[in-house]
Specification:
single chain, about 240 residues, alpha+beta, Nucleoside Triphosphate Pyrophosphohydrolase, eight-stranded mixed sheet, four-stranded antiparallel sheet, about 15% helix
């Protein structure tokens, strides 16, 4: 029997659900990591300037929301430190969607936004105080459809390290950075699956410990990062 979207609850709202406790089905250590040479600003610019022919591995989640789909964008900000770092946020616990989860800065598109990149830049400034003058947009990754009915365009960008961030305390509980090399190494990509009321959900996770705190990157954020890895390895 088909399951209607409204009868399929989000994983984060299942009784006692903790993504960290779901067994790891596999780790893709057999796949090659993206080389350091491919992660330089010049190489990243060239990659988006002349993208390869490729297919995203993860493009949609099983829907659990019956509301109308909404377009959104996220910024995938690569901070140009001594080694490139990806800026991520932990969302505050009271938000109605994806509360408490690790996410890229981003949100719903406004009618006034000229493009997905404009949405991502506006939302990044609203959420973490990242001014567009510090940002160089490289391009976009394929659309990612979430179970909560968001049609997300990931916008990849280089960020100058001297930017000053001011997180919005209503939306952002914490800002942290993860080495790009860590995220583009499939030895850190874990596979998970769970079945609830006849519906099987599968996802990636990329747990990261920075020496002070542990961050569990999973769901849509991990799916978009997995696509970024495939994009960088293609061709």
């Amino acid at each position: 029997m088909a399951t209607s979207p409204e009868s399929v609850p989000p994983l984060s709202r299942l009784p006692d659900f903790d993504p960290r406790a779901v067994p790891v089905l596999g780790v893709d250590a057999h796949l090659p990591a993206v080389s350091a040479q491919q992660q330089t600003p010049h190489a990243l610019r060239q990659r988006f300037r002349e993208p390869p022919v490729w297919t995203p591995e993860v493009s949609s989640e099983k829907r659990f929301s019956s509301r109308a789909p909404a377009h959104a964008s996220v910024l995938v900000p690569i901070v140009l430190r001594e080694q490139p770092m990806v800026l991520l946020t932990e969302r505050t616990a009271h938000l109605s969607t994806h509360s408490g989860q690790v996410a890229f800065p981003g949100g719903r598109a406004d009618p006034e936004d000229a493009s997905p990149a404009a949405t991502a830049l506006r939302e990044a400034e609203e959420e973490v105080g990242l001014e567009s003058r510090f940002v160089e947009v490289l391009g976009t990754l394929p659309i990612y459809r979430t179970g909560s009915s968001f049609i997300i365009t990931p916008v990849v960008a280089l960020v100058q390290p001297d930017c000053v961030l001011q997180p919005n305390p209503y939306e952002v509980a914490e800002i942290f950075e993860v080495p790009l090399a860590f995220l583009l190494n499939p030895a850190h990509h874990q596979r998970h699956a769970v079945e609830w009321e006849g519906v099987r959900r599968e996802w990636f996770s990329m747990p990261y410990h920075d020496g002070r705190a542990s961050h569990f990157i999973w769901g849509a954020t991990a799916g978009m990062l997995r696509n970024f890895y495939r994009f960088m390895q293609a061709g």
